[in-house]
Amino acid sequence: MEQWFEQVFFFPSATTTGSAGVVLSCGIHGDETGPIHLIQTIHQLLVTGHLQTQRPLLLIYGNPNAIRDNKRYVDFNLNRLFGPTSHTGAETLRAGDLMSACSRFQRQVGHVACHLDLHSTIKPSLIERFALRPINNRCSSIQWGTHLVNAGFGGLVQQSHRTQTFAQFTCDSLGCDSFTLECGSHSQPDITQFEALKNWILTLLADPGFLNQQASRTTANSTFKHFVVKEDIIKTTSQFKFLIDERTPNFTLLPIGTDVYEDKNGILKTSEARYTLFLNSKVEIGQRAGLLLSNI
To answer: Which domain of life is it from (predicted)?
Structure first.
């Protein structure tokens, strides 16, 4: 094991040579404790030798200062800083370190299979655990839908615009399949809810051929939901306000003709049925205040 930056650890493959690397991250938001505890469990298995990874692994605790303070961030949302920015402060410096670590990882291992960035949701969700996939113009042979089901997830949201998230950065710069994994409730981090994901990650690390195997389908595949982002709701002024209850759970269905929000350009009314995700009017001006989705 090597430590490249604070709370950034490289684990070489124990025996297998030439296997594609994996990036595991958590704590990009420091108060999302459930995923942090899961990664700590896997980390402990690695350092004690109870788990021998057969893939090169970059293991990242994203925002150590915020984790220590048990707060979402110190100066600015770290998951909006993986690209050009005018912001300065602790999170901007940390984003630079994480981008440097990922680039070094790719140079060292050659090929990176995937990046899994673990988070938890601030508000309740009608789909408790779900994944978000950034814009990716490559075709993947991996059956990610079935893998996500087997890891305990109930839905997949495909982004339609590039953002400066960690997952979009690694997808673009490392050429890997990247996902933001929303692993359950922020307010009630029940560690038992991570059992399927933990077992899936342990198998991923122990078996270098796991991702390309024919994943076994389960009855849960039939209920797995696919969504695509139809609108990024951007807070453009201080007058921005939602016209629906922003406390509504993620994936709430809004009928056609619903008045969703009001800003300088007037009222946004849904022209088709849409599902809500991440509604939050308290973000900084210029930042995303939510997403509207369609089911596919």
So the answer is: Bacteria
Q: Which two tokens stand for residue 231?
A: 């609108």
- Residue position matching structure tokens 């939901």: 225
- The answer, yes or no, to whether residue 217 has pLDDT greater than 80, is no
Residue 281, token pair as written in the block: 């009017």
**Is residue 187 within 8 Å of 72, Cβ to Cβ?**
no
Strand order in the sheet with 288-295: 2-5, 8-11, 57-61, 21-26, 112-121, 177-185, 130-133, 155-158, 225-234, 288-295, 274-277, 253-254
The DSSP bridge pattern shows strands 177-185 and 112-121 to be parallel
Percent of the chain at pLDDT > 90 equals 81
More confident residue, 187 or 132: 132
Alpha helices per DSSP H over the chain: 33-47, 64-69, 90-109, 144-150, 166-174, 195-206
Q: How many residues does the chain have?
A: 296
Amino acid at 284: E
pLDDT at position 153 is: 96
Tokens of 127: 């789909």
CA dist 67 → 18, 29, 77, 188, 276 (Å): 34, 7, 13, 17, 28
30 contacts 186 by C-beta, under 8 angstroms: no
How does residue 152 score in pLDDT terms, banded at 50, 70 and 90? very high
* Domains of the chain and CATH, by start: 2-223 (3.40.630.10), 232-295 (2.40.50.630)
Q: What angle do CA 131, 288, 282 make, to 5 degrees?
A: 110
Residue among 155, 168, 145, 166 nearest 125 (CA): 155
How far are the Cα atoms of 11, 116, 134 from residue 148, in angstroms, in the given order? 24, 11, 15
